[in-house]
Design brief:
Two copies of one chain form a homodimer.
Chain A lengths: L8 H16 L6 H7 L4 H7 L3 H25 L5 H18 L9 H7 L4 H24 L4 H25 L3 H16 L3
Helix pairs in contact in A: 1-2, 1-4, 4-5, 4-7, 5-8, 5-9, 7-8, 8-9
Chain A binds a DNA duplex through helix 3.
DNA sequence: GTCTATATCTAGATAGAC
DNA sequence: GTCTATCTAGATATAGAC
C-alpha cells in the first residue's frame, strides 16, 4: 500500500500533463509547459515519450482514468444505498470543483472533445476511461440488487449526467447543477426499485 | 422570414469559426483555417474582428447559442407532453451526431472547457448560452403546468444530462447514451407529475 | 537519463497597397 | 473591404554533449 516513495521523472511528467490538460485541454497545453511544471527537462519528456505529444496525451488520459476511478470507487462505497451513494459522489465532485476555483472539472472532457476524430490513440484511451467508469457504477448497482439491464442503462445515465452537470457547474461557477443532478439521479435510481 | 440572401463575409467567417470550434475546439482552430474555410482573406477576418481570436471566439459562441436554441425550440415544440418532447430532442441530437460521423457534438463544450478561467469574454458568452438553453426548457415545463421551482430544477438537469450524454455518445460513437438519457429524463419528468 | 542548443514550422497579428 | 507580404513569438521536435 506504500504508494508515494517520491515519484520518478516519468511519473511527474504524466501527472503534470494530466493536470494541465484537465484545465487547459490537449491543444492548449504545451510540452514545454508540462516539462516546466514537472521540473523535468524537455529532453527527459521526449526520452520517456518518443511518440511526442500524442503519446503523452494517451498517458495523461490513462492516468486520469485511474485517478477518477479511485475517486468514484471511494465515493460510491461511502453509502450502502446506491441512490445515496450517487448523491454523495455528486457532492464530492462539487466540492472539489469549487475548492479548485472552478478549474478542475472532468479530467479528460476537454481532451476528449478536442481530439475526437483526429487522434485515434487518445480517442481510444478516452473511450476506455468512460467505459471503465460506467462499469464501476454498473457494478455498484448490480451488487445492490439491480438487474443487469437496469444497472447498465442507469450507469450510462449516471456517468453522462455527472459529466454534463460538472461541465454546467464549471461554466456557471456554481455547485447547484451538480447538487441538483445528484438528487435527480437518486430519484431516478429509486424509481427502479419499485 | 426570408433568411438566406447570400451571407456576407462577416457572417461566413462567424459560421466557419463556429463549426470549426465545435469540432476542434478553440485552441485547435486557427484563424487562417477559419479564413480559408469561409473563403475570406486573413485581412477581412481582422477587419471584422480587430480584437483577434478572442473576439472571434465570442462571436462564434453567440452564433452557436442562437442556432442550438432554434434546434431546441423546434424539438421541444414537436410534442405537447414535455417528457415526450425531451425524448424527441435527445433523438434529434443523436441523429445529427451520427449523421456528422460523430464529430458535431455540442457546439460550445470544447471551447467552454478550454477557455474556462482564462478568457473572461468567452466564458461569459458560454455561460449566457447555457442559461439561455435552460430557460427554454424551463419555459416549456412551466407552460405544461409544472410549478416554477420544479421547472427550474428539471431544466438544469435536462440540459446537463443532454450535454453529458452527447459527450458520451460522441466518445463511444453510439446513439445509445443519448437514447437512454432521453428515456430516463422522461421518466424523471413524469415522476414530478404525480 | 539529463541537459542545452537549435532546427523547423505554424500560430496570431500587423502593414500598407489597392 | 479585400488582398499579399511579413513580423514575431511560440509550438513540436531533434541532436548531441555529458
Amino acid at each position: 500500500m506504500a504508494n508515494t516513495p517520491q515519484p520518478g521523472t516519468r511519473e511527474r511528467v504524466v501527472r503534470a500533463a494530466s493536470l494541465l490538460m484537465q484545465r487547459q485541454g490537449y491543444e492548449g497545453t504545451g510540452i514545454k509547459q508540462v516539462a516546466q511544471e514537472a521540473k523535468a527537462t524537455l529532453g527527459s519528456v521526449y526520452h520517456f515519450f518518443p511518440g511526442g505529444k500524442q503519446e503523452l496525451g494517451v498517458a495523461a488520459v490513462q492516468h486520469a482514468d485511474q485517478e477518477f476511478a479511485e475517486l468514484l470507487s471511494t465515493s460510491l462505497s461511502a453509502e450502502a444505498d446506491p441512490a445515496k451513494a450517487v448523491v454523495a459522489c455528486a457532492g464530492e465532485l462539487a466540492r472539489l470543483l469549487r475548492d479548485s476555483g472552478w478549474v478542475d472539472g472532468c479530467p479528460i472532457s476537454a481532451t476528449a472533445l478536442e481530439t475526437t476524430g483526429r487522434a485515434p490513440d487518445i480517442e481510444q484511451a478516452v473511450a476506455e476511461a468512460f467505459q471503465h467508469w460506467r462499469d464501476l457504477v454498473a457494478g455498484t448497482l448490480r451488487e445492490a440488487g439491480f438487474p443487469e439491464g437496469d444497472a447498465r442503462d442507469l450507469a450510462i445515465t449516471v456517468i453522462s449526467t455527472l459529466e454534463g452537470a460538472e461541465l454546467t457547474a464549471q461554466v456557471a461557477k456554481s455547485e447547484t447543477p451538480l447538487r441538483v443532478a445528484g438528487e435527480h439521479l437518486a430519484r431516478l435510481i429509486d424509481s427502479y426499485k419499485r
